[in-house]
């Protein structure tokens, strides 16, 4: 037996021997195995007897029809089939019963799920031993996929035929429109004959075209018939319409009897006609524009010239000829480099090559030219490349403005700025240093150019930054015309100097703000001699130290629970500062600042400071004001700005979560960061009205946990080193 035959084919080959058993009136031992065999087949099978009754249906057929065997066996087709296929089936059965043989029938059947299956039935007569037809057996084959493929192939072929017709039509229309020598109004009659060829029913298609004031109509066009339309548009709006109509009725498609693709084709044709119509408008406008350009070119108030690929003159207007002292005819014999100052030639060639290659779209620069009389003059040139329609370069166009007088004035201003005996600085509206002259840099101990673009606060002491912002606000608001003042500053070498300064606002011609100008003069020598400064400094330091101690003790009298707190914080802070190798001045400032860092609490009610138990949010907010109030109080004296900064910022935190200003990172002075860590360590280890001291270990855990987030890492490391190497009792409550 051939292995290429499947089980269905094998059974079909032996059906003549097996099927009489299924029609026997007697139960035979073979009937059950044969039924089992037929039910195991995936191919639907049924058997009818001589009287036309179904005597067997296999499981595959029942499953396909969604019926049980008992719903079919014992019935004739009349009980099961109600559509117009019944008569055909009965007629075919009679032929088989009469003549025997086989039949092949293809028909659709509706399955139990409502879907339709296309089936080929191979029907054969069943004979008894006497050669009489006793029944019919039918084997069904699903040919749905094959039929769908054939239908789809036929549909695709029809669609392909229609698309080819549409493409041919579009090609003919496009070819007509490419003829730029013929006005589009003269092409309309040709369109009438071409467009119908793309339709499904070309012989019945009639066309009407309206374009501007022109109308063309097929001879038998009927406006009342089924039709589709497409609007012809230009840049200015609707300029016409194309209508296609069928004189006779046809089956419904996408839009009436018209295909979706036909509607799209009509839109595309209308678009192409609209583009060509617009192109004619543009060509006319271009001709007018060129005439105006020629007039503008010659009468322009700025010099204009065209150059070829080698930068030789093609033409130059009268203004440019006067600027260089050559006639247009003379320039046409010259190259652009012939007029360029020799030091600028190479730069011009490089930029020209980049323009021509497309690496640059345009350039604007100030350069020197040599006139016919030998004089060197300055011009501002803006150049670009005019391209052909295909994007390739056509020629250079350059606009040259005479800026010789303005440039000489600018040079004079620059020399004055650079050589001025006083410091001058231009400052942006957001308080950044734009440009500083050499004297300004020297006064501040800076190298020229090193601060350009940097924030003003990098050279302005922290204590003055709020004042700088307020002065800027008043100038911008027009509340003052200028601001004069004196202040000290620290040069990069650590030397303290005094300066007198004036700040004004420079405005644009329209009155809008442009930038600030700050003029400064070093008045250190005139303010005091070095000996007086040294003596005064010593006296001030001693007086200030005494004042600080008095203020600290006054604070402790109001808050006995914190007695010695500021002194202990100062000792620990100075020890940390020494570890960080800060200079002597910083050590003095840290000691003084720490001694009075809580001075602002003098202005907080004492009962609130000594309140046992948890504070309310309002009470806590009131206590937090002590940092700002203390700084404001200390600022009234001549105390160091660093001390003021310590008082104000010792509660600021590295991540910006502190108070009063929410400073973060390097914006917090290092001195304040040191006092902040010292303050926390001392506070945790000291007794308070609302809790006992929590011990040094808790304080160390706190600053370690906050290192790098709320506390400066270097300061924390230095503090830990101090506490490990020196006796903590020297700084903290034992």
From TrEMBL:
Residues 540-734 form the HD-GYP domain. Residues 34-76, 289-331 form the PAS domain. Residues 562-684 form the HD domain. Residues 103-155, 363-415, 483-535 form the PAC domain. Gene3D superfamilies: Hypothetical protein af1432, PAS domain. GO terms for molecular function: phosphoric diester hydrolase activity. SMART domains: HDc, PAC, PAS. CDD domains: HDc, PAS. It comes from the Bacteria. GO terms for biological process: regulation of DNA-templated transcription. InterPro entries: HD/PDEase_dom (IPR003607), HD_domain (IPR006674), HD_GYP_dom (IPR037522), HDIG_dom (IPR006675), PAC (IPR001610), PAS (IPR000014), PAS-assoc_C (IPR000700), PAS-like_dom_sf (IPR035965). NCBIfam families: HDIG (TIGR00277), sensory_box (TIGR00229). PANTHER family: CYCLIC DI-GMP PHOSPHODIESTERASE PA4108, CYCLIC DI-GMP PHOSPHODIESTERASE PA4108-RELATED. This is PAS domain S-box protein. It comes from Pacificispira spongiicola. The lineage of its organism: Bacteria, Pseudomonadati, Pseudomonadota, Alphaproteobacteria, Rhodospirillales.
């Amino acid at each position: 037996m051939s292995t290429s035959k499947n089980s269905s084919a094998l059974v079909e080959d032996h059906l003549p021997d097996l099927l009489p058993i299924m029609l026997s009136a007697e139960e035979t031992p073979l009937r059950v195995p044969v039924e089992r065999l037929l039910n195991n087949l995936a191919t639907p099978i049924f058997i009818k007897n001589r009287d036309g009754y179904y005597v067997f249906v296999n499981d595959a057929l029942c499953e396909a029809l969604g019926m049980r065997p008992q719903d079919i066996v014992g019935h004739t087709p009349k009980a099961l089939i109600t559509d117009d296929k019944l008569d055909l089936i009965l007629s075919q059965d009679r032929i088989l019963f009469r003549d025997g043989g086989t039949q092949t029938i293809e028909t659709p059947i509706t399955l139990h799920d409502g879907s339709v299956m296309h089936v080929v039935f191979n029907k054969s007569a069943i004979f008894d031993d006497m050669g009489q037809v006793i029944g019919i057996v039918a084997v069904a084959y699903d040919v749905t996929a094959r039929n769908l493929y054939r239908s789809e192939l036929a549909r695709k072929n029809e669609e392909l035929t229609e698309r080819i017709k549409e493409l041919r039509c579009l090609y003919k229309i496009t070819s007509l429109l490419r003829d730029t020598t013929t006005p589009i109004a003269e092409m309309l009659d040709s369109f009438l004959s071409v467009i119908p060829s793309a339709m499904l029913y070309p012989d019945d298609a009639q066309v009407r075209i309206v374009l501007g004031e022109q109308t063309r109509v097929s001879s038998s066009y009927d406006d009342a018939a089924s039709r589709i339309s497409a609007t012809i548009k230009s840049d200015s709006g609707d300029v016409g319409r194309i209508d296609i109509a069928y004189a006779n009725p046809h089956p419904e498609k996408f839009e009436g009897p018209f295909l979706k693709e036909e509607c799209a084709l009509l839109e595309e044709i209308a678009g192409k006609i609209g583009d060509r119509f617009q192109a004619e408008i543009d060509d006319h406008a271009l001709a007018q524009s060129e005439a105006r350009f020629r007039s503008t070119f010659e009468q322009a108030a700025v010099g204009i010239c065209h150059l070829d690929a080698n930068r030789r003159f093609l033409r130059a207007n009268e203004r440019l000829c006067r600027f260089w002292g050559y006639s247009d005819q003379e320039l046409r014999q010259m190259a652009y480099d012939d007029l360029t100052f020799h030091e600028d030639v190479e730069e011009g060639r490089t930029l020209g090559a980049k323009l021509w290659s497309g690496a640059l779209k345009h350039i604007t620069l100030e350069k020197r030219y040599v006139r016919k009389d030998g004089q060197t003059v300055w011009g501002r040139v803006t150049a670009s490349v005019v391209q052909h329609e295909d994007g390739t370069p056509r020629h250079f166009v350059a606009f040259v403005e005479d800026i010789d007088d303005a440039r000489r004035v600018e040079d004079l201003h620059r020399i004055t700025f650079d050589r001025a005996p006083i410091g001058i600085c231009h400052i942006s509206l957001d308080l950044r240093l734009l440009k500083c002259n050499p004297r300004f840099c020297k006064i501040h101990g800076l190298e020229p150019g090193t601060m350009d673009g940097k924030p003003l606060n990098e050279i302005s002491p922290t204590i003055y930054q709020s004042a700088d912002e307020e002065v800027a606000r008043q100038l911008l608001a027009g509340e003052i015309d200028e601001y004069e003042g004196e202040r000290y500053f620290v040069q990069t070498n650590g030397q303290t100097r005094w300066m007198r300064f004036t700040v004004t606002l420079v405005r644009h011609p329209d009155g809008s703000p442009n930038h600030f100008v700050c003029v400064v003069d070093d008045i250190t020598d005139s303010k005091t001699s070095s000996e007086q400064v040294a003596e005064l400094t010593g006296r001030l330091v001693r007086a200030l130290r005494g004042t600080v101690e008095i203020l600290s003790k006054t604070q402790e009298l109001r808050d006995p629970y914190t007695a010695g707190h500021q002194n202990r914080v100062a000792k620990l802070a100075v020890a940390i500062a020494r570890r960080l190798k800060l200079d002597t001045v910083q050590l003095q400032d840290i000691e003084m600042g720490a001694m009075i860092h809580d001075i602002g609490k003098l202005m907080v009610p004492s009962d609130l400071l000594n309140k046992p138990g948890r504070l309310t949010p309002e009470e806590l907010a009131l206590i937090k004001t002590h940092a700002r109030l203390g700084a404001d109080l200390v600022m009234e004296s001549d105390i160091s700005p660093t001390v003021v900064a310590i008082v104000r910022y010792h509660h600021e935190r590295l991540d910006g979560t502190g108070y009063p200003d929410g400073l973060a990172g390097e914006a917090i002075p290092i001195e304040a960061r040191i006092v902040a860590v010292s303050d926390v360590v001392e506070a945790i280890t000291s007794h308070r009205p609302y809790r006992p001291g929590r011990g040094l270990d808790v304080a160390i855990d706190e600053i370690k946990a906050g290192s790098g987030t709320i506390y400066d890492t270097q300061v924390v490391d230095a503090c830990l080193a101090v506490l490990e190497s020196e006796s903590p009792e020297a700084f903290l409550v034992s």
